[in-house]
């Protein structure tokens, strides 16, 4: 399927105006620069989220924003000496908030999807920072555009009943994970530089996994990478993309 999707860093005002007028989904890949043992690149998380965004953009007209490479990585896998770059949660939240605010001020205040790739725990700090930034902005925007007390006014009694899914403020900016719930249920949960993550990386970026270097480490979490397969990576990506495309279409009322 051919789409008109583009990456913002290569776009011009004319293309952005078309995207704004037609309310194209805005995809923001978000990840980290984190130690992924000796076999997997530091940018793995951001690269995966960017790869998922590009696959979604093959199915729908979308704007792919430049990835947010530096995130709330933590030093859970290894200390600073391993090369991980850790950004404070509050600082990161403010950074994401300013990106989203700029989009809102430019007129892109619908159908924004932050695609987060890092950790599988619910409400991990990176994901929470993105969610908090989004909700903070939406509440401020509603106050600014509708006035204080907007929800409590009698004329807004049927506010939610009269709007489409796309116009529901809590749907304007969504945080989604790089892999859908279906993909994880069918093809296994996440890992770190293991069988799953390396399979996905090798599918999206052939040659990015250096299996010949596995013998250089005793990192327990990386040993399962020996079982990686491009086929597994392809299936996991395809399932996630299908799920997210369906979700985006449903929100926009598309068939």
Q: What's the count of strands? A: 5
What is the name of the CATH architecture? 3-Layer(aba) Sandwich
Largest sheet: 5 strands, parallel
- How many helices? 7
The spatial strand order of the largest sheet comes to 1-3-2-4-5
The CATH homologous superfamily is termed Creatininase
Please tell me the overall pLDDT: 94
The third-level CATH topology is: Rossmann fold
3D shape: globular
| Total domain count | 1
User: Radius of gyration over alpha carbons?
Assistant: 19 Å
State the end-to-end distance: 15 Å
Helix content: 25-40%
Query: Structural class of the helix and strand makeup?
Result: alpha/beta
CATH class: Alpha Beta
How much beta, percentage-wise?
A: 5-15%
How would you spell out the order of helices and strands? EHEHEHEHEHHH
Describe what this molecule looks like in 3D:
This protein is α/β, with parallel strands linked by helices and 255 residues long. The chain has one domain: Creatininase (Rossmann fold), CATH 3.40.50.10310. The protein has seven helices and five strands, in the order βαβαβαβαβααα. It has helices spanning 13-21, 44-56, 89-105, 125-146, 181-187, 195-204, 230-252; strands spanning 6-7, 26-30, 63-64, 112-116, 173-177. α3 packs parallel to α4. The protein is globular, with a radius of gyration of 19 Å. It starts with 5 loop residues before the first strand and ends with a helix. The mean pLDDT is 94.
């Amino acid at each position: 399927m051919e789409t008109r999707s583009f990456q913002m860093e290569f776009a011009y005002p004319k293309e952005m105006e078309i995207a704004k007028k037609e309310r194209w989904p805005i995809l923001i890949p978000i990840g980290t620069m984190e130690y992924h043992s000796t076999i997997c690149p530091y940018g793995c998380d951001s690269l995966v989220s960017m790869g998922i965004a590009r696959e979604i953009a093959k199915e729908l007209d979308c704007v792919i924003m430049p990835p947010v490479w530096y995130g709330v990585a933590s030093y859970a896998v290894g200390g600073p000496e391993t090369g991980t770059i850790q950004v404070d949660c509050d600082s990161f939240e403010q950074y994401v908030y300013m990106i989203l605010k700029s989009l809102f001020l430019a007129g892109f205040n619908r159908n924004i999807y932050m695609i987060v790739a890092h950790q599988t725990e619910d409400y991990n700090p990176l994901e929470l920072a993105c969610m908090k930034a989004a909700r903070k902005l939406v509440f401020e925007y509603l106050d600014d555009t509708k006035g204080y007390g907007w929800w409590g006014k009698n004329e807004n009694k049927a506010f939610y009943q009269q709007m489409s899914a796309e116009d529901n403020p809590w749907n304007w900016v969504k945080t989604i994970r790089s892999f859908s719930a279906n993909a994880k249920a069918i093809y296994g949960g996440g890992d770190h530089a293991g069988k799953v993550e390396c399979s996905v990386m090798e599918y999206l970026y052939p040659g990015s996994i250096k299996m010949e270097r596995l013998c250089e480490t005793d990192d327990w979490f990386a040993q399962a990478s020996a079982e990686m397969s491009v086929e597994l990576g392809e299936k996991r990506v395809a399932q996630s993309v299908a799920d997210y495309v369906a979700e985006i279409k449903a929100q926009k009322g598309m068939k």
